[in-house]
């Protein structure tokens, strides 16, 4: 029996980088340095003419994964998207670099997670200390963004997955087909009312009671993809570069939060669909959107046995259950017209 390599890819995973971008002074604090920080975790995987390295131990065409790692940092420094705050553009630069430099590479798979650093809102731009040193903390509650101090606002992340595939012959003008997915990950949300789950299917194995009012908590993962993206290098600004990825990300995140907060949810499934339906109606550039919403249960704790009411309008004490958890997912796309 003979065997062959059906598919292969390799590269560098979990490449973490922080980039600081220096800006002109903020007029509100001209004496302080004004900077932007971006933290990314990057994976780059290469596919191409590498079968010999697997089958014959011939490494002559293998681009070392250490080279892949170094290239990520080098391009982070040289990027035309200097803050790296639009990860879709950095993913494109990485893809084009490897396809342009190495003719034996046929596709580049880039995954980027952008971590959530938010400017600290501070009441003053002057050093403060305790009253024991003779300087009191300010009493004002008016705040402003600090020019170079940040906090981790949450564990939610902006994510990008880009696969760039060579469509031209090696040695010819480079043409690339992109498969691009943008998204958000680990957006943890909770509402204390405005959610129910009733009239569900019941059988002899059903013990779940109907709930006209319940806590709704979930950790949202969302991804959205775009239509075909083709680029021929050197032919002018590509359609890829013309897409407003920051607008899409901010819009999808805000729609998700708005609908989660304001929709009287009869089920996780229905809330999920309403969000996806709204995204597709608002952004024609988005071809489809997918969501994963694990149901993070919080059940009433039985205090009746201690003589304390804890049901209905007096329901106040709950206990969260990490697992098992519900797992609800769906992909929403546009209905195709029948000819």
UniProtKB/TrEMBL annotation:
Recorded hits in Pfam families, A to Z, give:
Uricase
Record-annotated active site: 12, 65, 297
Organism annotation: Rhizophlyctis rosea
Task: Please write the reaction equations for the catalytic activity of this protein.
Answer: urate + O2 + H2O = 5-hydroxyisourate + H2O2
So where does O2 get bound? 65, 295
UniProt-recorded name of the protein: Uricase
* Keyword entries, A-Z: Oxidoreductase, Peroxisome, Purine metabolism
In the record, biological process GO terms are:
purine nucleobase catabolic process; urate catabolic process
Taxonomic superkingdom = Eukaryota
Primary location:
other
Per UniProt, urate binds at 65-66, 197, 214, 268-269, 295
């Amino acid at each position: 029996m003979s065997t062959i390599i059906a598919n292969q890819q390799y590269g560098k995973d979990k490449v973490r980088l922080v980039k600081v971008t220096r800006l002109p002074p903020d007029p509100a604090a001209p004496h302080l340095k004004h900077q932007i920080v971006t933290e990314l975790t990057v994976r780059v995987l290469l596919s191409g003419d590498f079968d010999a390295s697997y089958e014959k131990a011939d490494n002559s065409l293998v681009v070392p994964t250490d080279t892949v790692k170094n290239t990520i940092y080098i391009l982070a420094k040289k990027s035309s998207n200097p803050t790296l705050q639009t990860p879709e553009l950095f993913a494109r630069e990485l893809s084009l670099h490897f396809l342009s430099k190495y003719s034996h590479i046929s596709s580049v798979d880039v995954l980027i997670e952008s971590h959530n650093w938010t400017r600290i809102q501070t009441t003053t731009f002057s050093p403060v200390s305790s009253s024991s040193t003779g300087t009191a903390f300010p009493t004002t509650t008016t705040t402003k963004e600090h020019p170079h101090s940040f906090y981790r606002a949450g564990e939610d992340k902006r994510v990008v997955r880009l696969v760039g595939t060579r469509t031209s012959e090696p040695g010819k003008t480079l043409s690339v087909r992109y498969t691009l997915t943008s998204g958000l990950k680990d957006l943890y949300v909770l509402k204390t009312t405005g959610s129910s789950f009733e009239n569900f299917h019941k059988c002899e194995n059903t013990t779940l009671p109907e709930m006209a009012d319940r806590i709704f908590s979930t950790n949202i993962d969302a991804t959205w993809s775009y239509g075909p993206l083709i680029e021929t290098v050197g032919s002018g600004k590509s359609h890829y570069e013309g897409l407003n990825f920051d607008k899409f990300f901010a819009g999808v995140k805000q729609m998700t939060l708005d609908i989660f907060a304001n929709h009287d949810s009869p089920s996780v499934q229905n809330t999920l669909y309403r969000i996806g339906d709204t995204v597709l109606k608002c952004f024609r550039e988005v071809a489809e959107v997918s969501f994963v919403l694990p149901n993070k249960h919080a059940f009433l704790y039985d205090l009746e046995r201690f003589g304390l009411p804890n049901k209905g309008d007096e329901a106040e004490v709950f206990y969260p259950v990490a697992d098992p958890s519900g797992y609800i997912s769906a992909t929403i796309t546009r209905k195709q017209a029948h000819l």
